[in-house]
């Protein structure tokens, strides 16, 4: 299963329409995870034209973004949790383990800072933002490859 992970697209200010470099990755996706701050519901519809989408609500999402604050999914045997804001960097892995005790992977956003860390059977993954890089060198998204209930590859991909 090929999964594209997005966060913090911030439409319509930053995301007018799907950027071509992002669309190139979406065309091969079996599933799209968006970790919040889509800002307007039309982005979800746009993404759904590529693959099924799961979204959590971000702090900048408008009332037309209908999404839960957290979400837990089973991706072919891999337990995945999603949340927009995972809190401060200090103690994040332990905090996410307590919050999502059965998850093998937690996807989050909010900071716009790409991150991929693992310890004690939990991996936490922030794809960054494809449209609002802030202090990062590039706008980014994430790709995941899940096989037989295992995360076999996770990548942060520059798209700007």
TrEMBL record:
Metal-binding as UniProt keyword: yes
Signal peptide extent: none
Occurrences of domain Calcineurin-like phosphoesterase (ranges): 1-148
Cofactor(s) the record lists: a divalent metal cation
Pfam families hit by this protein: Metallophos_2
Alphabetic keyword roster: Metal-binding
EC number of the protein: 3.1.4.-
Family: Belongs to the metallophosphoesterase superfamily. YfcE family.
PANTHER family xref list: VACUOLAR SORTING PROTEIN VPS29
Protein name (database record): Phosphoesterase
